[in-house]
Amino acid sequence: MGENANIEMAHKLSETESSERSRRRWEEVAEIFEVLILAVIAVATAWSGYQAARWDGHQAVLYGQATKYRFEAEEASTLGGQKLAADSAMLNSWILAETSGKSKIAEFYVRRFTPDYRAAFELWLVTDPLNNKSAPPGPGYMPDYRNPDLEEAAHLNEVAAGKFEEGTAARETAEKYVRATVMFAAVLFLIAISQRFRIRAVRIASLTMTFVFLALALFSVAVLPRA
Predict the structure, then answer these.
(1) Interior CA angle at 213 toward 208 and 217, to 5°?
(2) What is each CA distance from 139 to 108, 127, 185, 216, 223, in whole angstroms?
(3) CA 156 to CA 77: how far, in whole Å?
(4) Rounded distance, CA 138 to CA 125, Å?
């Protein structure tokens, strides 16, 4: 009778030791898995922070370039407007001299036109503006008239607008990297919580949720452009 009790007790102790070894083995596997996740989070968080800083810097550069082009466009626009105003003033003087029969003075004003305005002026004369009421109001209204400075201003404004849009896109990209960093912090929080659980089913559920969040965070970073 005593011998059977000893055998039964030995079996129970063996089962307990086996169960304990299995539990420890499972906890070791879970801890290894958690350490791997923590390593991935550390690298991914550092990468996201680095990219966010790079895109912030890129945004600042692009906004600076946009401002530079805006100033250049304003300068070109001012110069083009001044040239057009001067040509228009000389045109008025030409009309006065031409209608007064002072041909030499009229020719003097024509020579003072800018090259592009003078070319348009020659075409404007073909429309007989002094007698034809349907003629354009002045050379500046001719289809062939060009003002290089105003055209340059328009081009620079387009470039500035493009740089500003690129800067805005860079800012949005930086914000997305910051959001990814927050997601990694949330994964880190979930890891810390899962380590507190000793019930296997609960810990597995917690680790599964953590892995899903980590996968989503990694995917959000993977699809973002890199600076």
Answers:
(1) 145
(2) 17, 10, 67, 64, 55
(3) 10
(4) 9
**Cα Rg of the chain, angstroms:** 40
Distance CA 94, CA 115 (A): 16
Structure tokens at 50: 């680095």
CB 196 within 8 A of CB 74: no
Q: How far apart are CA 35 and CA 16, in angstroms?
A: 28
Q: Which of 137, 154, 142, 136 is nearest to 81 (CA)?
A: 154
Q: Is the dihedral of CA 74, 78, 79, 83 positive or negative?
A: positive
> What is the per-residue pLDDT across 62-108, written as a single tens digit (0 to 9) for each?
999 999 999 999 999 999 999 999 999 999 999 999 889 898 999 99
Which residue blocks in the chain are alpha helix, DSSP H? 2-99, 103-111, 115-126, 148-194, 200-222
Query: What sign for the dihedral angle of Cα 144, 132, 129, 81?
Result: negative
224: left (phi over 0), alpha (psi -120 to 50) or beta: beta
Tell me how far apart the 2 most distant CA atoms of the chain are, in Å: 146
User: Domain extents for the chain?
Assistant: 28-222
- The H or E element that residue 223 is part of is none
Cα gap 221→215, rounded to integer Å: 10
In this structure, what token pair is assigned to residue 111?
């020579």
pTM: 0.72
Place of tokens 């917690």: 206
Give 24's contacts (C-beta < 8 A, 6+ positions apart).
Answer: none
